[in-house]
Amino acid sequence: MSNSTNLYSFAKEETDVAKLQVATEKLQLGCTCESGALALSLVFGALSLLQTHYENIDNLGLDAKAAASAMSSTTSRNKPLRHSGRHISIAVLRSYLIHATHTDLLSLQILNHFAKAFKLGGDDSIEDDISAGAIRHAMRHVEKSNDNILMDEEVDNNQLNLMKRRISGAFALACQLQPWTILSPETLVEAAIPLELWHAAEDICISAHKASPESLLPQNPSHETIYSQELQKYNAQKSVERLIDAAIEDRMYRRADALATSLYDAGGRSRYVEARFNHACETISKVIYRRQIPIVDKQIERIDKAVAKVQQDESKYGSAAQPSIPTDPSQEIRKYAIEKLEQAGDITSAKRLASVFGLDYVYDERAILLAAAMRRRRYLQFDDVLPGAVPSLVTTPQELKYVFSRLREEPLRHGPFGFDAEWDEETQGAAVLQLANAKMAVLIDVPALLGTEDGVKAMKSTVGTLFNCTDSVVAGFACRQDLQRLRASPSKVREYPERAESHHRHPWLCGTRAVVDVQSLVGTKEPKLFKAGLSRVCQHYFGKPLDKAEQCSLWSGRPLSEHQQAYAALDAWVCVAIYQKVNE
């Protein structure tokens, strides 16, 4: 009793993490009493305060987290201590969480370790409204700052990392305590996506799915403050779908495929074929470019298996909507592969592929031209909206300055402008930046220009100036990932040790005050188009969708095909055209 009493007093005043950990380890060796559980609970509280207080000072915040993790692991294996101290730990954790609903002094990361130590959560040990209150308080600061931090690269990296740590603690606590009768997991997933906390978002989906009852989904769920069992299950599935949709929107097809696979039974089935189809198209484009033709067969086989799996499960469990896939994915992936082989001039491989899959194949140029003409009539085309030849890639500083002088000629000097970016998932940064006004489009070879100091200077004086000016609008569509890719693009720049490091993270992109996300404007004006993709919005305003076949192309390869260049230029033009439509 004396040891635990001493630790009780010690924990209330001690600020040295190492001493707290040593004292706790001594107590845990033989303590199984309620007072020991109380002392441990207070130590977790002290560590929670320490991490928040010292998280930006040296490694003290990390030390507190490591100590809490070690304590949690040890305590969770001490069954007598956990059982005898359960009601004490519940009372103390409840008290901490109540305080956390109106203060930032307590670290939710540490409180999560506390909950795990005594295996609290997933039952009625902590009321959901208390847990949800603490989590919402932590998220409130993130929601208030998210857009500013992600749109303005001048924000210090430490501030962004601090925000990620804090909200990660809230996410981890939500997964542990599972307050899903009060809190929608989709709300947490939406907060995780802009911060690229993909693993945390996946954990949230898993936690919500495990906690949801085995019941049928409602056809028209109501928006209730306290969610019914049916609505909990619905929310869990919608969080999975939103997570996978976000990965697809960000053109992270491999990640989307992996998420749809790992979360298949939690709601991923409705996105499984779409995610795999996009991933297969991306892979096929790349391996054909690299002449790794045998991999094409494997990708087609993966699509066949995915379609068969979903069809078999639909016969057992009912249909799950597949939002954006061809009516016959197996047939479409074969056509896509053959078309890409033809574009690459590999007619032999195209014939072999058709033979392997039992398709009649004759290289008929007239038939190919006819199919292309039908496709042109179905989708919006570059020459439908912009006169002249498809723009070529700008690769030198001189070319960039010249095309920019044309792009910003009167009367369109102040725009509005549209922008988009293309990249390959496994490479760093952007491969192509597209800019457009109502009359012309420009395609910029980002790696080529950022590969020289003169190119960096030219990018800063043109693109950098445009993106940060206050008297113009540069419209993107769901452009968070585009901006992040542009900022992540490697650049050749001199080092200036006398300047702060934070000013050199993006030496050519000094701000994004001119950037406007058109997707949010469209969602406000046309609620039925909330979170709709660019192709669907294009169809709404211009009568035809965009042909997204080239989206999965290899964008880091050179030279780009004319199809790629037309696709890229059209995307930028559509952004500015939609902005003008919304503001008419």
From TrEMBL:
Signal sequence region: none
An individual GO BP term: nucleobase-containing compound metabolic process
- Look up the domain of life of the source: Eukaryota
- Provide a Gene Ontology MF annotation, just one: nucleic acid binding
Q: Which Pfam families match?
A: DNA_pol_A_exo1
Q: Which InterPro entries match?
A: 3'-5'_exonuclease_dom, Exonuclease_MUT-7-like
Task: Report keywords, A-Z.
Answer: Exonuclease, Hydrolase, Nuclease
**PANTHER family per the UniProt record, alphabetical:** 3'-5' EXONUCLEASE DOMAIN-CONTAINING PROTEIN, EXONUCLEASE MUT-7 HOMOLOG
UniProt protein name: 3'-5' exonuclease
